[in-house]
Amino acid sequence: MTTRSFGEPIARLEDPRLLTGRGRFLDDIGHRALAAAFVRSPHAHARIADIDVTDAVDVEGLVAIFTHDDLDGRAGEPLPLLIPHEALTHGRTGYALAKDEVNHVGEPIVMVVATDRYVAEDVCARIRVDYEFLPPVVGIEAAREAELLVHDDVPGNVAAHMVQQNGDVEAALAAAPHVLELDLDIERSASTPLEGRGVHARWDPDDASLRVYTSTQASTSVRAALAARLELPLDRVEVVAPDVGGGFGVKIVHPWPEEVLVPWAAIRLGREVKWTEDRREHFVGATHERGQLQHVEVGFDDDGRLLGLDVTVWHDNGAYTPYGIIVPIITTTQLLGPYKPGAYRAEFFSLYTNTVTVTPYRGAGRPQGCFAMERTMDAIAAHLGLDRTVVRERNFIRPDEMPYDHGLIFQDGRPLVYDSGDYPATLDKLKKLIGWDEFEAFRAEARAAGRRVGIGIACYVEGTGVGPYEGGWVKVETDGTVVAATGLTTQGQGHRTVFAQVVASELGVPVDRVVVTTGDTRRFGYAVGTFASRAAVMSGNALASAARKVREKALRVAGEALEADPRDLEIVDGVVRVTGSPAGAPGASIPLATVAVLANPLRYAFDREAERATQFGGPVDFSKPPVAEGDSPGLEDTGFYSPPRSTFANGMHAAIVETDPDTAEISILRYCVVHDCGTLINPRIVEGQIHGGVAQGVGGALYERMVYDDAGQLLNASFMDFLMPYATEVPVIETDHLETPSPLNPLGIKGAGEAGVIPGSAVLASAISDAEGFAVTRMPISPSDLFSLRLARESR
Amino acid sequence: MKPAGFTYHRPVTVDDAVAVLAEVGPAGKVLAGGQSLVPLLNMRLAAPEHLVDINRLSGLAYVRADGDGVTVGALARHADVERDETAYAVLPLLRETLRHVAHPTIRNRGTTVGSIAHADPAGELTAVLALLGGTVTLRRAGGQRTVAAADFFTGPMSTCADAGELVTSVTFPVPEGRTGAVWTEVARRHGDYAVCGTGVVVTLDDDLRVAGARAAYVSMGPEPVVVDLTEAVAGAMYDDAGWPAAGRLAAGLLEPDDDIHATAAYRRHLAEVLTARALREAAGRAAGGQR
Ligand SMILES: Cc1cc2nc3c(=O)[nH]c(=O)nc-3n(C[C@H](O)[C@H](O)[C@H](O)COP(=O)(O)OP(=O)(O)OC[C@H]3O[C@@H](n4cnc5c(N)ncnc54)[C@H](O)[C@@H]3O)c2cc1C
C-alpha cells in the first residue's frame, strides 16, 4: 500500500498560516491603492431626480466621482442574470450604479475614489442626491397582494412562477383518508461571513492587462464577466481569490456592482483601486436569503403514509434576480427529503420586494423545504397519535429502492434521482445517539422538577456536487514537491487539506509534500465555483484523476530508468520502487523528484538536478525523439470531473430543548447529528463543516432575522442587533457518521458543506413544539415570540 | 464606517484634561474605553470636532472600596472593578452585575465610569448606581461637584453633565442594615444588553422580616427606573413573603417599549417574573448575612 492520508482526520494544513496571522485577505492587499466608497440609497424605492456634487469636489484627497452617466460601454448595462430559466419570465437585475431608480436601501448610486477610505467617506457625506419617493413593497404579503409594484413592468411582482408535478395530486388528496393543511413562515437571514466582500484591481498599461483580487466564490466566472463587461480579451484578465474569510453563498454572486466598478475605475484612472466592504454595507448592499411563506396540503393513510403532497411557496427574492430562481427550485425539490411523497405537486411564486436581493445562503432553499416537510411529518404524527420517528420511518425510501427517481427536475436542470443512502440506518443511529426511546422518562423527571423539556427530530437529503464540471492540475516539481491547483475557490473550509489528501493518496507521497492552490485563474482557468456542497466531489475527483495520470507517467518514466515493467512498480512516500522491495534497495527505486527531472529532457543544466536531464546526461535511445509523440515534457497532468447528475447526501438531527415556563427562554440541552456524505476524505473537516452548519442553523432558528420596517429600512443592520449566535449560544454537537459511498464518482464522496444548517429550524421547531404542546409554524422564534404564542393560546 | 475628521487631544493630567474640555466646549467628547463611542464615531452617528482621550490619566485608574462603598475612578476598566476583591467583599452586587456587561474583551477596555457617563438605559451599571443611590463626581476647569444618581440621569443617553465636565469617579454606596442584593436579567445572547434586567435590594429587620424592597431596571424605560416595592412585602418573613405580588406591583409601575427584540408586554412580564425571583434570592442572602 502507498501512503494513504485519505480518510484520516489529519489537522488542517492551512491552519498554521492562518492562525499565526500570515493569511492574506483582500484588505491586506494593495496598501497603496486608492480607496473607493459608495453613496448608497437611503430609500427603499425612489426615482433619482438629481445628484449634486458641488459641496464634495473641494475635499482634499478626492480623485474621482462617478455616476451611472460615466459608465461607458458595457459597464453601464444592467448586470447579468447569471442563471436564466424559462420560468423566470420577469428577471430583472440592477446596474453597477443605479440608473434613474433605486429598488432597495443600500443600492449603490455614486462611486467615490479618494486617497483613502476616510476621505472617500467624507466625500460621500457631502454628495446630495434628490429623490422622488415611490411607495415601497415590503414583505411577502405586500408583494403577493401587489397593490404596489416594485418594477412597473412586472405584473403582480411575480418574477417567476413554476409548477412541478409527479402524479395526480388532486385525486390523491381527494381519496386520502386524512388531509391536513399547514401555513408556514420562515424569515430572512443572511450568510454574513466574517470578512465582507472586497475588490482590488491593478491595471498594467505596459502589459495591457488587468489583475483583480476579489473575495469571491467564483474567480473564473468573475474573470469572464469582467472581460466581457470591460471589453478586454480574456487572456489579459487575471482574477485571484486571496484568503477568503467565509462566503456561505453570498460570494457566489458576481459580478457585484463593486466588482465591475473597481476594475473599471482602475483602468480609467490608471491607478490601483481597492474597496473593502464594511459591515453596514454588507447588510444592505450584499444579499440575504430564506424568507418564504408556505402552504402545505398533505393526504395520508391511517399509518401515516403519504398519499399526496401539494406545496405552494411564496418566495421573497428581493429587488432583483441576478442569481435566477435557484433558491425556490431547491426548496420545492429538496423538500422531499428522504421520503416518498405519493403524488407530488410543488408550485412557487418568486416575488419582488423593495429589499435586499435574495441569493443562496448555505443550505440554499433547503432549510425552508426541510421546515415544510418536517413540520408536516410532525403534524401527521400528532394527528394520528403516532411517534414522530415512526411516521418518518414509514415514509422513507428504502435502500433497495436506490437509485430513486422522484420524477422531477433538480436545480442543475437534470432529473432528481437519489444515488444512494440508507435512511432507516441513519434514523436508527440517531435514535440511539439521542436516546429517543428514553426521553419520556427524562421528561417526566423534568416535569416533576417544574421544568419543561421537549425533543425534536428532522431529516433531510441534500443534492450535492452539482456539475457541470471542475478540473485539477497536478505537477511533481524536480525537488519532489507536488503542486496542485483547481479553479474553484476556498473560503476556509479546509479544501487545501482535503485536496492534498486526495492527491497525496493517489500519487503515493506524504500529504505535507502537496501544495494546493485554489481560485487563482493564473493557475487554473477552467472552473465553475464553490457552492452547492460541490468542492470535494468535483475538484476532489478531478484532482484524483489528474494525480492518477501523473502517477501513470511517473511509473512509465521510472520504469525506463529502472529497466522495469511499470506494472511492477509502486510509489511509496515519494519514491518509486519495485513493488515490495525494501526501502533503499539499490537499483530498485528512484525518488519521484528524480523522475520529475527525467520527465523533462533539457538542453541547459541550470542546477545539479537538471544535469541528469540534459542531452549528454546519460545513456540515450537514439531511435526515439527525446519527447515521444503525444507525450509532453514534465511530470504533470490535468484531469476533469463532470458528473452525470448530483449526488445526494443525507442526515438527521435531533435536539432536546428546555423552555422556561416563566421567562420563555429557550435553551438547547442536547443536539445530535447523524450524517452521511458518502466516503469521508477527512472526518475532522467534515465534523467542522457540520459544527459550523449547526451554528448557523441555530442562528436561523432562534436568533437571526432581518427586521424591515414598512418603509423598507433594515432596522438591525449591525451585529449589535442582528443576533448571530456567539459560541455561548451554540450547543455541544454530538455527531455520528454513516458512509454510504456514492456510485456516481470514483472516490464515492458526497458533499458536506451545507448539511449542518439544513434541518436547524425544523428540528428546533419540532423540539419546542414538543415542549410547549402546540405546533410552532414560524421561525425563527425568540423568547418574546414564544411568550406571545403562549398568551394567544391561553386567550383562546 | 470611518469616522469624520476630529482633532485628537491626549492630556496627561486631570487639570489639562478639564482645561482642554473647557476650551473646546460642546465640540468636545471624552474618549475613555471607546467601546460605545468608537462605534458611534464609525457610523457617523456622532461627529465631535475634538476628542479628548483620557487614557493617560493614570491617576484615575483606581477602585477604592471600604465599608461605606466602592468608588471607581474614570480610568478603571469594568474588568478592574469586576476583579477587585475588596469591592467584591463589601458589595458583591458589582461583580455579579458586571458579569452581565458585554464580554471579557470589552470589559477589559470599557470603563465603568464611561458606562455611567454614556447613560445607556440598557446599561446595567446605570441601574445599579441608581438602585444604591450612588453619586457621580464631576470636574471642570476650576471646580468640582458631586451629583446624586437620581439627578445625574436625565434621559436616554443624556445626563446633567455640562460641556467641559469630566466625570472623575462614581461611588456605589453599600446599603445600610441587613440587606441582600441581586442582579438578574434576560438577554438574547450571553453578554448582550438585557431585554429586561433588574437589580434589587431587600432589607430585613432583626427578626428577619422584610423592612424594605427596592428594584431598579434596565431596558424598561428611557433611563434607569427605580421602584420601591416595600408596600407589597413589608413585615413578611423573609422566606414567606409575597414576592409575586411585589413582581406584579413592579410590572404595573413600568412602561417599557416594544423594540425589535421584544414586545412591551413580554418585557413587563419579565419584569414581574425576574423581580419576584431576584427579591426572593436577595431576601435569602440578607437572612444568611451574605449581602
Ligand atoms: C458588543 C458590546 C456589548 C456591550 N454590552 C454591554 C452590556 O451588556 N451592558 C453594558 O452596560 N454595556 C455594554 N457595552 C458597553 C460597554 O460597557 C462600554 O464600555 C461602556 O458603555 C462605555 O465605556 P467606555 O469606557 O468604553 O466609554 P466610551 O465609549 O469611551 O465613551 C462612552 C461615552 O461616555 C462618555 N464618557 C466616557 N467617559 C467619560 C468621563 N469620564 N467623563 C465624561 N464623559 C465620559 C464619552 O464621551 C462617550 O460619550 C457593550 C459594548 C459592546 C461593544
Automatic annotation (TrEMBL), chain A:
Protein name: Xanthine dehydrogenase family protein molybdopterin-binding subunit
Keyword Oxidoreductase: yes
PANTHER family: ALDEHYDE OXIDASE 1-RELATED, XANTHINE DEHYDROGENASE
UniProt xrefs under InterPro entries: Ald_Oxase/Xan_DH_a/b (IPR000674), Ald_Oxase/Xan_DH_a/b_sf (IPR036856), Ald_Oxase/xanthine_DH-like (IPR016208), AldOxase/xan_DH_MoCoBD1 (IPR008274), AldOxase/xan_DH_MoCoBD2 (IPR046867), AldOxase/xan_DH_Mopterin-bd_sf (IPR037165)
Top-level lineage group: Bacteria
Pfam families the record matches: Ald_Xan_dh_C, MoCoBD_1, MoCoBD_2
Domain (Aldehyde oxidase/xanthine dehydrogenase a/b hammerhead) ranges: 20-135
Alphabetic keyword roster: Molybdenum, Oxidoreductase
Molecular function terms, GO-annotated: iron ion binding; oxidoreductase activity
Record organism: Jiangella rhizosphaerae
TrEMBL record, chain B:
Annotated Pfam families: CO_deh_flav_C, FAD_binding_5
GO molecular function: FAD binding; oxidoreductase activity
Residue stretches making up the FAD-binding PCMH-type domain: 1-177
Listed InterPro entries: CO_DH_flav_C, CO_DH_flav_C_dom_sf, Diverse_Substr_Oxidored, FAD-bd_PCMH, FAD-bd_PCMH-like_sf, FAD-bd_PCMH_sub1, FAD-bd_PCMH_sub2, Mopterin_DH_FAD-bd
Key words, A-Z: FAD, Flavoprotein, Oxidoreductase
Keyword Oxidoreductase on entry: yes
Protein name: Xanthine dehydrogenase family protein subunit M
